[in-house]
Amino acid sequence: MSGDELNVRNLILATAGHVDHGKTALIKALTGTDTDRLPEEKARGITIDLGFAHLALPGCSVGVIDVPGHEDFVRNMIAGLGAIDLALLVVAADDGWMPQTEEHWQILNYLRVPRVVVAITKCDLADAARTRAAVEEEVGDGSSGKIPIVLTSVRTGTGLDELKRNLAAACEALPPSPDIGKARLFVDRVFTVRGSGTVVTGTLTGGQIKQRDHLLLQPQNRRTRVRALQSHNQPLEVAHPATRTALNLPDLHLEEISRGSILTTVTGVKASDTVDALIERSARTQSNSGALKNASLIQMHFGSARFTARIALLNCREVQPGEKAIARLRCTKPVFAFLGDRFILRDSSGRATIAGGIVLNPDAAGTKFRSPTERAFLEARAATPNDLATLLRTQLLRDRASRKESLLTKSNFSARQISTALDELVRENEGVVRGEFAADKGWWETMCRRAESMIAADHKVHPEHRGMDLAELRAALAIPETELSEAIIGDLHANGFTLEKGAIWRRDHRPSLPASLAAAGVQVRAALAARPFDPPSLKELAPSTAAQQALRFLSETGEVTQLSGDLFLATEAFSQMKRIVAETLRARGPATSSELRQSLGTSRRVLIPFLEHLDKIGLTTRQGDRRRLR
To answer: Per the confidence metrics, is the pTM higher than 0.85?
Structure first.
C-alpha cells in the first residue's frame, strides 16, 4: 500500500430526502453506480431498500449509503444512518420541501449527524432560486455553521462538480473517525456466496477488524471467525473505522444472523433488553405525529435494527414537542447499545417519527428506575450525556466500586481515555484506585472508617487478643466481592494496621489481660516459672476456661511458646534451653537425645517435642540418633 493510500481517510455518507427527488440518480451521477439493485426497485422506479456505492474525493474514501425516500420504507432509511459522518439531503426544485424531507431532516438532527450538505436537484425543471430560499429557511444554520446548498441537475450536469467540492470540504472539516479499540459492525445485509458461505455487510465503527479475527455476534452472543473481508469489492487484511465492510463468516448459518445484528470485538459484556435514555422531541414535530405517553408501545430504531419497546417516563406522563424526558425502554429483544449511542423512536404503527434519544445506561435491567439513587444517577448523566468525567463519576457513585477493566466498557470511549479520566478523578479527590479496583472516594473512606471502628471495638471487647479475626471482619463488612474487601483490608494495612496470621490490629494496640482473666494469668505464669524446663501438662496448666483463655493470650503475645498441641514453655525458659543445646553441640559435636536431656535436666516428654521444634525452626538437624547444629 502506498503512502498516499495510507493517508486516505474513510468516511460514510448517506442520502436523505423525499421520494422521487432524485437521490439515486444523483448518486449515480457522482459515483457511476446505480444503487437500485432489486428488481422491484427497477420496476417501480423508487428505492425500497438500502443501496451502496463508493465516492472517491481528494484525501477521502467515502462509502455511500443511498436510502429510500418513500414513507413506507422509513425503517429501511433509518437502518442506513446508524454510523454515518455526513448526510446529503436532497430536495427537488419542482417539489420543494416535502413531508418526507421534513421527517428525514428531523431524523438527521435526532442522530446528531455531524455534517450535512444539501443538493437541490432537477434545477432544469423549476425555479431553483425560490426552492433554495425555502430550503435555507427550513435548515437554518447547522451546529458547524451555515449548511452548504448546491443547485444541481443530473440531466444537464449542472452543479455536480460544485457538489463534489462541497462534499470534499465537509469531509475535510470532519475529525478522523475514532479508533477506540471497540469495533462494531452494524449489519445491514446478509447473504450467501457459493463456496464461501455466509457474507454480511455493514458500516464499521469504533475499531478495526482483521482477517482471521474472532468476533462476537450480538445480541445472539455467538462467537464467529472472519475468513475474509472486503471494502467496495476490494480484499483487505484490515478494515478501519468508517468503512463499508463485507465479512465472510463461514461458521455462521444464514438464519443465525439478520439486519440489525452487530459484530464486535468487545468481549465480557452482553446485550440488554432494558435501556435508560434521554428522550427529546423536536419543536417542529406535529402533535398528530404520534403520542409519546408513559407506558406507550413504540418502535425503537438503533443502528440497523428495529425493536418494539414499551416506554416508561421518569418524571412526567407525556413528552410534548420541544420537550425532553428521561425514559426507560423495555425492548422485546436485547439491544447491544453503548453509552452515548443515539436512536430514533417511531410510533407503534411505524408511520411517524416521534422522538430521538441518547443512551444513558445500556444495562438498565435489574436497576430500580424510580429509586432516589437511580434517579440521581440518570439526571446527572442527562445533564451532560457525552461528558466522560460525568459518566465515570456517576458510575462509581452509584456502584460504589468496580473493576477498572470493566468500567464503561459499553461506551464510546477507549480504555486509555477512561484510564486518564479516572486518574483525573483521583487527583480531584473524588475517586480511589487500589489494585484492580476503582471506587467512589466517599464510599471507600466510609468503608475504611467502618472497618477501623470494628477493629477498635474488638480491641476493647477482647483486649487479650492480638487482633480481630480477618474472617470476622470480612463478614461484618458484608462486601460480596472478596477481592474488594481484601483491597480495603490492604488499605488499612498500609495505614497504621498490622496484618498477620489471619488477624488484623492497630499497630499501637498492646494486648492485655482483662480484669476477669488477671488471676488466671498469674496462676499460669507461676506454674510455668515453678518448673521452667519441665512444665506441667495442659490439663494441669489450664484446668479452667479462664486459664485456657489466659494461656491463649500469653501464647499470642509471645510470653509463652507452644511446642506441641498440649505442651507450653515460658518463652524465657525456651530461649535458655535453646542456648544450652547450641553451646553443648558446639562443644561436643553431634549428640544423642539422652546426652542433650542430661544437659537440660528435663524429661523425655518435654525433650522430644523440644528437639523436633529446634529441627523445624532450623537450629538443628537430625543424623540418625544424633543431632548437630545446622
So the answer is: no
